[in-house]
Amino acid sequence: xxxxxxxxxxxxxxxxxxxxxxxxxxxxxxxxxxxxxxxxxxxxxxxxxxxxxxxxxxxxxxxxxxxxxxxxxxxxxxxxxxxxxxxxxxxxxxxxxxxxxxxxxxxxxxxxxxxxxxxxxxxxxxxxxxxxxxxxxxxxxxxxxxxxxxxxxxxxxxxxxxxxxxxxxxxxxxxxxxxxxxxxxxxxxxxxxxxxxxxxxxxxxxxxxxxxxxxxxxxxxxxxxx
Length: 226
Prior knowledge:
Blueprint: E1 2-7, E2 13-19, H1 21-24, H2 30-43, H3 104-120, E3 124-127, H4 137-150, E4 160-164, H5 169-175, E5 181-185, H6 191-196, E6 199-203, H7 204-213
Parallel strand pairs: 1-3, 3-6, 4-5, 4-6
Antiparallel strand pairs: 1-2
Helix pairs in contact: 4-5
């Protein structure tokens, strides 16, 4: 088990909690994390580039000129790739598939490694609760500034990920206008967001939910930090 400090809303330490080492004390393996991140980014990729082939180009329903007697080269359709405005040969198409498969165990192991890395660096901060009753962005910015000033590990931190146990609409609304603050539910974590954030701010209940949601993760001693 690993001990983590719990802070109140004024960023003052109030108690300690124990969290599972199988999730928050895992030894990192860069190759595992890399495979999961590449797969996530590939699976979220939109296929935008699409070039029309000769079957999709408009026009060309009739032969441009007769086969013989004009002195011109023979052509059957202005849709031919040889013509300006004709179809494209071997161009990018919307049928391309960038999907990559990653098994569930590998995905969860990579997630645990990312969380463990933040714990080791002291950048996973647990609060008794995370809330913003007013739903105002200004109030959230003020609170984040207070937290960064009082907690040494968060000095110079600019990118925050708030981990909630429930869908708090007011807090999500307050964070929507901030480019450097993201909000995610404890059961919807992913490696890309964890790696893109400099610090994780989680509620105590969110930590419990993470442990419950990923309870099937292996607790093998070979995979945990000694």
